[in-house]
Design brief:
Blueprint: E1 5-7, H1 12-21, E2 29-32, H2 38-43, E3 51-54, E4 64-66, E5 72-75, H3 80-85, H4 87-92, H5 94-101, H6 106-111, H7 114-118, H8 125-128, H9 143-146, H10 168-174, E6 178-183, E7 186-191, H11 192-195, E8 214-221, E9 227-234, E10 245-254, E11 259-268, E12 275-276, H12 278-284, E13 286-287, H13 290-300, H14 313-329
Parallel strand pairs: 1-3, 2-3
Antiparallel strand pairs: 4-5, 5-8, 6-7, 6-8, 9-10, 10-11, 11-12, 11-13
Helix pairs in contact: 5-10, 12-13, 13-14
Bound molecules: flavin-adenine dinucleotide.
Length: 331
């Protein structure tokens, strides 16, 4: 690991000042939260910053505020373990709590933070291999495209075929969450969905619009009275692992027999960003029955373009949607 300076600001303004000093040179200064992803990147020479800005001494960013209308405001330093066990999150934003609980191991959840999880870098093994100068690291080729692409994108890929690894992101997008980004020049708020970018839309070496001098300080999850939700994730192994594919579904259902009035459906593990599938969600509206669930599955993968080794994700996504809808029908 290359030697680096460690800044330990105690206010957000101090942290922003540290970032601003070096913002012209991207990646010379890196934010440091729980370190669960960043330290691996440093040890594997994927990033070699001159300075880390440790956010953990800044007070107030480790809290979840429940607003009067039931919306949540989650500070970036809230740990995944805290979010998974938080009573309001569990009761009213189940998909978010379930997604947090599905992440890594108990140790990772107790150190890893919400801000770090949403900003973690891809797990594609070409990106993670120091010796592979892939597109994501400023090279000229996505080696996964013609290479070992079992874990890569079937939707939204090209020219890079990474999948976004965060479990939390699809669940938060399903709840129309909004992020606050603070920079030295001010603050901006945008939907989490718009925070993420596709490789063809923006800088291929990035996954989001976060500027080098910005910190994601909070995530606001608006209250959705009358909605139920779930997060279903499929992993290759029983112990901790990233999603091969996942689905976050939120529905507003009424009556008996149950009818769905409104729905959100977002896929994880299949695209370079959380993959919102509004047409699939529309197919869920109406009678809550397996015919509509299957139609939603078909629509969710309608535009899929699998690579040589990942066509299995197409039926997998359809199956996960059925599983999620079955679970919701029992609540
Ligand atoms: C073995 C293992 C298994 C895992 N399994 C899963 C899994 O199943 N699902 C899943 O979703 N994740 C998984 N992860 C990833 C893990 O959840 C994330 O790495 C962790 O949440 C990152 O949080 P952190 O606080 O440790 O971030 P750090 O490692 O400190 O930071 C991660 C990145 O985010 C940036 N960053 C941190 N905070 C902010 C902020 N507030 N604003 C802007 N940028 C910021 C950092 O600069 C860095 O680039 C796994 C990780 C490991 C090591």
């Amino acid at each position: 690991m290359k030697a680096f300076e460690l800044a330990r600001p105690v206010t957000l303004d101090q942290a922003l000042a540290e970032l601003e000093k070096d913002s012209a040179k991207r990646d010379r200064t890196k934010l440091f939260a729980g370190g669960q992803d960043l330290l691996t990147e440093l040890k594997e020479h994927l990033v070699e910053p001159d300075k880390l800005v440790d956010l953990k001494r800044i007070p107030g960013l480790d809290r979840i505020e429940v607003q009067a209308d039931g919306s949540l405001v989650i500070g970036c330093l809230v740990t995944l373990a805290t979010l998974a066990e938080h009573p309001e999150t569990r009761n009213f934003f189940s998909a978010v709590a379930e997604a947090a609980r599905s992440i890594g191991s108990a140790q990772i959840r107790s150190q890893g933070t919400v801000g770090g999880n949403l900003n973690q870098r891809p797990r594609c093994w070409y990106y993670r291999n120091e010796q592979a100068p892939c597109l994501k690291k400023g090279g000229s080729e996505c080696f996964a495209y013609a290479g070992l692409n079992k874990y890569n994108a079937i939707l939204g890929g090209g020219p890079s075929y990474i999948v976004h690894p965060s479990d939390l992101a699809p669940a938060l997008v399903a709840f129309d969450a909004e992020v606050t980004l603070r920079g030295a020049k001010g603050e901006r708020k945008l939907s989490l969905e718009k925070f993420y970018t596709l490789p063809a839309e923006a800088d291929v070496t990035r996954e989001s619009v976060l500027a080098p001098d910005e910190i994601l300080t909070h995530v606001r999850v608006p209250a959705k009275p009358g909605w139920t939700s779930t997060y279903v994730k499929f992993k290759e192994r029983g112990s901790y692992d990233f999603a091969l594919a996942s689905v976050a579904v939120a529905v507003r259902a009424t009556g008996s027999p149950r009818a769905i009035q409104d729905a959100r459906l977002v896929l994880g593990g299949v695209a370079p960003k959380p993959w919102s599938a509004p047409k699939a969600a529309e197919a869920l509206v109406g009678v809550d029955d397996p015919k509509n669930w299957a139609a939603a599955g078909n629509r969710a993968v309608a535009g899929a373009e699998p690579l040589a080794h990942n066509a299995y994700k197409v039926p997998l996504v359809k199956g996960l949607i059925l599983k999620a809808m079955e679970a919701l029908a029992k609540r």
